[in-house]
RNA sequence: GCGCCGGUAGCCUAAUGGAUAAGGCUCCUGACUUCGGAUCAGGCGAUUGGGGGUUCGAGUCCCUUCCGGCGCGCCA
């Protein structure tokens, strides 16, 4: 916070001087961080472009401004450098003391920000591609909250799509040998196989994540189904049958009853009951959702509400959105041409779509059903608080508690136990509500969805605009990120580990990376990868334990390191680059990695442990500030202090650009600066009390800063020991 | 065909239009009888795919071209 304030004040002072001395108005004065310490702490290159305007040498302009500007008191001196840069030097001890005082919490704007992320199809286990979505989304949530915004986290559940139906098709119609193989059991009659599947569904609790959960079972079934579709026409026909049943709904049928009915149908050879199929599909989706929550919980990722697509359908969200679109004249019914019989939204007036061959987007098919984009428009309108009924009230869901959860610290795993936080789910009964909780109606909405969804996301945004909500459309933000792909080396590694072959061609394996595919089953399961990561981390800890033996809290340490490695890897890479996943790189704990950062924080904390044991001194206390010697901080200590002061600027910049590599760079700088100081500035052995106090103060600042950036913002735990 | 994203050292990545393009990996040389070597110091290695342009200043903006990826469904 200090640096932001000084920047703003300096910019304002500079603008005033420009006005007074040159009668010139500049409204966006930006002070940058110079590339080199010798060039000051802040810099302004603005005199250079003004040279032409004023017909004066840039250095002369800079000199006048340096002299005439009423600089804030934190600016010690100003120098002119090079062709006309204005280099500002801060009063080190003033900034240092301000930081040691601690920063006040930001207070919010009162408006709510909605972040939608994760959104995994509930038809199979999550893979590392989903992890990128959840980690980016969760990091955004953390940064927004740090900046003082109220944030609501939504995880959209597509429980009525064909993907869930495909798993149900597999359970009911996949040839018994295939299904048994997918389940990993001996071949049996279908009613026994169904019984096995139902047994794996689990209860209505969020389970502890493992690699033998229901989502892992679905992971095996799903690709077998999609692979059989092209080969077997009858089998392929089952998809429509199941989908139809799912859409009709189960009408409150009990799961036991549904299973009994399905098994009875197997024995009697009759057709399956539609309601029973729908009930099974619901159970499959819900069980997968719980597994996904468990996986993300390992990374410290939690949610506020799970909007269900089935509720969007049953509660007429689309019907209402359809009316609004018609009233606004945003859509029209085509009577001829290739889209005959469809309701389309014309995008011809939107600059971004105008050049397209066909700027019309179909929202309602000729058979009367709504497309995915149509549903998404309705959902987006609800998120923005724009889905109103004719009487002006908001068209809303019913809600009930799905689970409650706890998190003992910002980067600890989320535990779905009796906790004080409620995870709500939507329901189709508007009468249901959770006391004290309201959802939707956000001022700004971030949709964390991969870049391949850019086109439909633009359509949704444009629909909001066409309805007359231009400002809301601008605040509908698609947080796009590139996909996660696998390097050929990673593919070979998975094939080796799993013992199966994905049958990729030499041509595919010659490329730099191969796209993951849930349909083909090519991918690294999130839980599987986290297990490997934890095991590797545990080995690394054990290798360093030496003769003292394995620590009691080995699993906990391993988990922290694994999460640190993964979350940092995801945060540090720019979002619009393909993340080519490589095991060796992901499992590296040295260099520019999460564990390096964690180690630096642990190392700093260790200083205070030793200090307490040998001298009875702890971290620097605020009350000691007056005792600090009033000498200028040396360059190397100052570099670390200044980097600490930059946090607020960095977080804001990261959020503005949706680019967490900036935050990663900041925390890496911090760690590097600290390690450089470590050898030259010993604390415990230092006998000079003033010097020791100064070093304690700097390292306390560093340790606190690391705790905030790693745990609170990046969700990376700082372990006690490593 | 149209659109979006990427191309930076042997490899992976960073850099709000600013000063000497910054880290990591690899390789080489060093540093613990002082707070943990998952560390640090040093070295090798790049005219940022090619070509034009705008600018006092371009990896960054514009044009063009080449390479790679992804979109442009009455799929979800």
Shape: globular
Category by helix and strand content:
alpha/beta
Overall pLDDT level: 93
CATH superfamily of the largest domain: HUPs
| Gyration radius, in Å | 29 Å
Count the beta strands: 16
Unreliable residue runs: none
How is the main sheet built?
A: 4 strands, parallel
CATH-defined architecture of the largest domain? 3-Layer(aba) Sandwich
Work out the strand percent.
5-15%
Instruction: Please identify the top-level CATH class of the largest domain.
Output: Alpha Beta
Give the strand order, joined by hyphens, for the main sheet. Answer: 5-4-12-13
Question: How many structurally independent domains?
Answer: 5
Distance between the termini: 31 Å
Number of helices: 28
The CATH topology of the largest domain corresponds to Rossmann fold
How much helical structure, as a percent, in the residues? 40-55%
SSE diagram, text form:
Layout (H helix, E strand, L loop, with lengths): L1 H21 L19 E3 L2 H8 L3 H11 L6 E7 L3 E6 L1 H10 L10 E5 L11 H19 L3 E5 L7 H12 L2 H8 L6 H11 L13 H15 L4 H16 L6 H14 L5 H25 L6 E2 L2 H6 L2 H11 L3 E3 L9 E4 L4 H4 L5 E5 L7 H12 L14 E8 L15 E7 L16 E7 L3 H13 L3 H5 L1 E6 L2 E3 L1 H11 L7 H4 L4 E2 L10 H20 L8 H19 L6 E3 L1 H4 L7 H22 L19 H11 L1 H11 L3 H20 L8 H25 L9
Parallel strand pairs: 4-5, 4-12, 6-11, 12-13, 14-16
Antiparallel strand pairs: 1-3, 2-3, 7-8, 8-9, 10-11, 14-15
Helix pairs in contact: 2-3, 4-25, 5-26, 6-9, 6-10, 6-12, 7-8, 7-9, 8-11, 10-12, 11-12, 14-16, 16-17, 21-22, 22-24, 24-27, 24-28, 25-27, 25-28, 26-27, 27-28
The chain binds one RNA strand of 76 nucleotides through helix 2, strand 9, helix 17, helix 24 and helix 26.
């Amino acid at each position: 916070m200090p640096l932001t304030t000084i920047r703003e004040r300096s910019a304002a002072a500079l603008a005033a001087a420009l006005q007074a001395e040159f009668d010139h108005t500049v409204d966006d004065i930006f002070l940058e961080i110079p590339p080199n310490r010798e060039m000051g702490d802040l810099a302004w290159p603005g005199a250079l472009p003004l040279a032409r305007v004023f017909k004066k040498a840039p250095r002369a302009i800079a000199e006048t401004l340096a002299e005439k500007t009423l600089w804030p008191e934190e600016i010690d001196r100003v120098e002119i450098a090079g062709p006309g840069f204005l280099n500002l030097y801060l009063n080190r001890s003033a900034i240092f003391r301000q930081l040691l005082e601690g920063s006040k919490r930001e207070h919010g704007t009162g408006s709510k920000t909605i972040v939608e992320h994760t959104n995994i199809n509930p038809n199979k286990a999550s893979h590392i591609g989903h992890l990128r979505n959840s980690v980016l989304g969760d990091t955004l949530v953390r940064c927004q909250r740090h900046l003082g915004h109220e944030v609501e986290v939504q995880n959209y559940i597509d429980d009525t799509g064909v993907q869930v139906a495909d798993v149900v098709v597999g359970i009911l119609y996949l040839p018994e040998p295939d299904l048994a193989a997918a389940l990993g059991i001996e071949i049996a009659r279908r009613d026994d196989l169904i019984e096995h599947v139902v047994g794996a569904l689990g209860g209505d609790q969020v389970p502890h994540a493992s690699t033998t959960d229901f989502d892992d079972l679905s992971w095996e079934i799903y690709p077998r189904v999609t692979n059989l579709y092209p080969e077997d026409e009858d089998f392929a026909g089952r998809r429509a049958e199941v989908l139809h049943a799912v859409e009709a709904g189960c009408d409150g049928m009990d799961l036991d009853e549904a299973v009994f009915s399905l098994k009875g149908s197997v024995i009697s050879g009759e057709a399956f009951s539609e309601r029973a199929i729908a009930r099974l599909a619901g159970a499959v989706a819900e069980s997968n959702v719980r597994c996904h929550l468990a996986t993300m919980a390992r990374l410290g990722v939690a949610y506020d509400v799970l909007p269900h697509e089935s509720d969007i359908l049953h509660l007429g969200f689309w019907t209402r959105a359809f009316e609004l679109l018609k009233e606004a004249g945003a859509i029209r019914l085509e009577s001829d041409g290739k889209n005959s019989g469809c309701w389309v939204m014309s995008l011809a007036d939107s600059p971004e779509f105008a050049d397209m061959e066909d700027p019309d987007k179909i929202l309602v098919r000729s058979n009367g059903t709504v497309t995915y984009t149509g549903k998404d428009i309705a959902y987006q309108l609800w998120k923005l608080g724009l889905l109103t009924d004719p009487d002006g009230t908001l068209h809303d869901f019913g809600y009930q508690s799905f689970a409650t959860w706890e998190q003992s610290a910002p980067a600890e795993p989320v535990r779905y136990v009796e906790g004080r936080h409620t995870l709500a789910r939507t329901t189709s009964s508007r009468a249901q509500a959770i006391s004290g909780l309201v959802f939707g109606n956000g001022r700004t909405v971030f949709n964390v969805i991969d870049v391949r969804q850019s086109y439909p996301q633009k359509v949704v945004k444009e629909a909001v605009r066409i309805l007359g909500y231009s400002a809301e459309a601008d605040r509908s933000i698609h947080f796009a990120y590139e996909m996660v792909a696998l390097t050929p080396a990673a593919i070979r590694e998975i094939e080796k580990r799993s013992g199966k072959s994905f049958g990729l061609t030499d041509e595919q394996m010659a490329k730099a990376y191969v796209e993951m595919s849930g349909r083909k089953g090519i991918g690294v399961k999130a839980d599987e990868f986290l297990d490997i990561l934890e095991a590797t981390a545990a080995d690394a800890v054990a290798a360093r334990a030496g003769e003292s033996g394995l620590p009691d809290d080995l699993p906990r340490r391993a988990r922290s390191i694994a999460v640190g490695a993964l979350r940092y890897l995801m945060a540090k890479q720019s979002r619009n680059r393909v993340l080519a996943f490589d095991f060796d790189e992901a499992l590296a704990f040295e260099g520019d990695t999460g564990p390096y950062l964690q180690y630096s924080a642990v190392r700093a904390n260790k200083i205070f442990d030793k200090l307490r044991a040998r001298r009875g001194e702890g971290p620097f206390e605020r009350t000691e500030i007056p005792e600090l010697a009033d000498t200028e901080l040396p360059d190397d200590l100052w570099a670390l202090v200044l980097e600490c002061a930059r946090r607020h600027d960095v977080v804001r910049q990261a959020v503005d650009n949706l680019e967490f590599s900036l935050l990663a760079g900041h925390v890496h700088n911090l760690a590097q600066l600290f390690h450089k100081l470590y050898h030259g500035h010993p604390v415990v052995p230092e006998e000079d009390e003033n010097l020791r106090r100064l070093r304690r103060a700097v390292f306390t600042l560093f340790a606190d800063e690391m705790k905030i950036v790693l745990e609170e913002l990046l969700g990376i735990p700082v372990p006690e020991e490593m």
